[in-house]
Amino acid sequence: xxxxxxxxxxxxxxxxxxxxxxxxxxxxxxxxxxxxxxxxxxxxxxxxxxxxxxxxxxxxxxxxxxxxxxxxxxxxxxxxxxxxxxxxxxxxxxxxxxxxxxxxxxxxxxxxxxxxxxxxxxxxxxxxxxxxxxxxxxxxxxxxxxxxxxxxxxxxxxxxxxxxxxxxxxxxxxxxxxxxxxxxxxxxxxxxxxxxxxxxxx
Length: 202
What we know:
The chain is built from no helices and 12 strands. It is an all-beta fold.
């Protein structure tokens, strides 16, 4: 389906099958895409600001300068997705599946990633500012030149993570986080609470 540049503000697209659709530069601000299927869709430069994408299937999508600011992606499936630039600030990804996601130069400010699964993800030059990472699973994640500032990652799992030169600064909470077998060489952990955190074999 060719939907390039269409305006879908506030549209009701719940459960719609948009697999393979061309949504280049489409505007779907505040649209309801709950349970929608967008696998294989082209979403470069599209705007999903404040849209509801709860439980939507977005696996393998390439988000190139795609706006997802304030979007609700609770429980969404984004396994294998690629993010190049763009803005996820103020979005909700609680319980979302982000396995093997790759992201470069992505801004995540006040994002809810509680209980999200990011196993095997590769994040490069991403800034996580005041994000909720409580109970998130980041096992085997690679964090290259990333910054965590004011984040709450209590109880998060970083087992086997590659976090060399990671910068965790200013009022981060990693109490009870599990870094078993993780590599944190050259990492900065200033002003961070790490009570009962596990670093065995790290």
